[in-house]
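May I ask for whichever protein you like with its C-alpha cells?
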Amino acid sequence: MTNNRLNIGIFTCHIDNDYAIEVCKGAEFAAKELDCNLIVFPGMFLNASFNDPANQLYDYQYNSIFYYAHPECLDALIVSVGAISSFLSEKDIHAFLSHFEGIPILTLEEKLDEYPCIMTDNHVGMRTAIEHLINEHHSQHICFVAGKENNSDSNQRLNIYREVLSEHGYTVTDNMIVHGDFSEYCGSEIGTLIDNNPDMDAIVFANDQMAIAGYAELRKRGLRIGENLSVIGFDDSTSSVNMDPPLTTVNINSCELGYRAIYGAVSLAKTGAARSETMNSHFIKRLSCGCRLCRENDIVSTPAELLSLSDSEIVDILDHTLFDEIRDSFFSHKVIESFSDIFADIIRVLKNDRSDPYLQRNIIDKIKNRLESNITDFYPVQKITYMFREMASIFSSCSMSPARRLEFNNLNAAITNALSLFMSNSLHNQMQENRILGWSSIYITRDTLTYGDDLNKTYSSILNKLKALNYNGAYIYTYDDEIKITDSGSWIVPKSLFLQAFYNPNNSQVLFGESRRIPSTEIFDNEYTYYDKRFTSVIVPIFTNEDHHGIFICNTDVASFGTIYSTSLQLGAALKYMTLLREQNITQEQLKLSLNEIHEKNELLNHLSTSDELTGIYNRRGFMERVEYYINIPSNHGLKAILLFADMDSLKVVNDKFGHKDGDFALKNIANILSMSFGPHDVIGRIGGDEFVCFAFTGDPDYVAQVQNRIKQYSAELNATCGKPYFIEMSVGVTEFTCDGEQTIEDLLSQADSALYTNKRYKRMSIIK
C-alpha cells in the first residue's frame, strides 16, 4: 500500500489511443470512488516487433515497464490481455503472466481459466450491425475489413461476419475480405478491396480507426457514404461521431470495462476473489449506413402522437431513445439527469402558445453549463452535439403550428450555435495548450544542451519543464549503466535504480550520491513519494533506440496522458546526451586534451542553441540566419516584407532603481508583446541587451499599422495589470522592402534603426508611474 491506500496496477497498450484512454478513464473514476491509487503500465503489443519490424522497431522498449509490477508495490493487477497480447498464443500469455506470481490478477477482454475477467461480448453488437444491413438496407454484397490475421479480436469479429452472412444464405469469398492493421493508415488494403468488389453495397470495419481510412478511399472513387453504399465500424470511438457522415458503429463500453475492473481488482485484493462479468456490446445506428436521423414515427406508433403525451412521458421517451447505448454505464444516470431538465424546457417551448425569450435563454445557459461540467469527461461534446441533432430531427417531424415551428427552429439554431461556439473555443484552447505543452517538452532537450554537464542545473531545469506539463508529480530514475534489452522485451529488472530528480506537492529535489539509490520494488513507495491523497501514476521507459536509460513516473490524470510519450522521448534524448557528454569528458581526461581543445568543445556546446536564454525567442545568431535565408531564397523574391527594430525604453533606469530581476522581467514582457503582435510564422529575436528585431512577410498595406496598434494595446494592458511602479514600453522603427536577394540585414537594420530614433521623440520623459 502507498499512503495507506491500495495500489491497483493496470497493464494497457498505447495510452494515446481512444480505447486505452476510455478504459483508463473508467478505471480512474472508480479508483476515485474507492479512494485507491491507480498505477498505469502502458506497454505496446507484446511480440509486435516480430509482426511489423518496420513500424514497431523499438516498441519492445515500452514493454520493459511491465516487469516493475511486483507484489511489494501492487495489491492487485488488471491486465488488458486483448490489447497487449494480440500477437501471442494462449500458452505465451500464460508464460507472460507467470512473471507476476504473487499479485492477484484480473484480466480484461479475454478469459483465461484461472483468472477472473471483465469482458465485452462482441457478438451481440456485431451480429446486430450486419443483420441491420441485411434486413433494413437489403445489402447484397457486404465486404469486411479485418485487423491483423492473428489478432483474436479481429478474428472473432470476422467469424461473426462469416456466420451471419452464411445464416442468411450469402456466399463469402476471399476477395471480399482484407486485413488492415487497426489504424487509419491501411488505405491501400481498403482501396484494393473496393476495386476488387465494384458491386459492393456495404462494408464493415473491425474498428473505427480503419473506417477513417475507408472514408478517404471511398471518397477518392466518388462514392457517397450512406447513399451509394453503407459503412459500419466497431468501438464507438470519440472520432466516430465526428466523421462525415457520422459513423454507424458498435459500442463496446470500454469506459465501463475499466470502471468495473477496478471494483473487481479491489475485491480481489481484499478478499482474494472477484466475479467475472460479461457486458453486452450495443449497435449504434447513425448516418453512414444509410439510415436517417431519428424521427417521431420511429419512437411512437401513431403520427403526431409524441407532443400529445405528458411532458414527463416525452422526457422518458427521449432519455430512452437518445441515451440507449450508455444505459448500462456507470455514468449514464449522471448524463441523463444532466439533460432531462433541458428536454423538459424544450418541450415547454414546443407546447407554449406564446414565445418565452427568458425560457429560451435559460435553455442555452443550461446547455453551456453542462458543456463546462465534468459530464463531457464521459459523454464527449461531439456526442452531445449529435444527440441534440437527433432530438431536433424528432421534434421537427412532429405536427405543430407554423408559429411553434418557427419558435422551435429559432431555438434549435441557438442550440446549434452554442454547441458550435463551445467546440470552436475548445479546439482553439486545445491548440494553444498543445503548443505550450509541446514547447515545454522540447525545451527539456534544449536545456540539457544549454547546461551540459551541470547535473544540478540540468535536472532542475527538466523538473521545471515537467511542472509546466501539468503533472502533479514526476520521478526520473536511471540505471547504473545503460541497458540493452532484447527485442522480446523480457528482461530482469535491476535490484535498484538511481532517483536523479523528482517533485511532488510536498517537495522538489535533485539528488546526489547514494541517497539516490532506491530498490526497484520501492519505486512507487519510498521516502520521496509520500502523498496524503490518492493518485494516478503512469510509468514509461526512458530510452533512445536500443539503449535503455531508466524510467519516468508521473502522477497525473487521464486527461493529461497525451504528453507522456513525447516527454519520455525527450527525456531519452536528454539522458542520451548527458551520457555522451559524460563519455566525452572521460575521453578528454584520458587523452589530456589541451585547454584550447577543451575551450573549443565548450564553445561548440555554447553555440548549439540559437535561442535567447532569457526570453526564449531567437538570439542574434538565430535571427540573422533565419532572416537571411528568408530574404535570399529565390522563391521569396518579389514578396513584400517588413523589418521592425525595437528597443526597450529606459532599461538602465529599471535596472538601477529596481534591480536586474525587474529588468529581466521587463525584457521578457517586451518579447511577449512582440510575439503576440506578430504572427506565428514571423521571426522575432533579441539581438542586444534591450534591442529586439522582428521580420514578417506582408501583402497587407495596413499591416504595419496593425502591428504597431497591437504593440500599443498589449503594452497598455501589461502596464495596467503588472503592478510594477514603472512603465514597460518600447520605441520602434519599421522599414518596408521587397525581397530581391540584394539586401543585407545590416542595411535593413540601419534603416529600421533610423526610423526608431524618429519614434523616440514621442516617448515618455520618465518611465516612473
Remarks:
- The first strand starts at residue 7 and ends at 13.
- Residues 304-429 form one domain.
- The chain has four domains: 121-254, 304-429, 454-511+528-606, 620-762.
- The two ends are 57 Å apart (CA to CA).
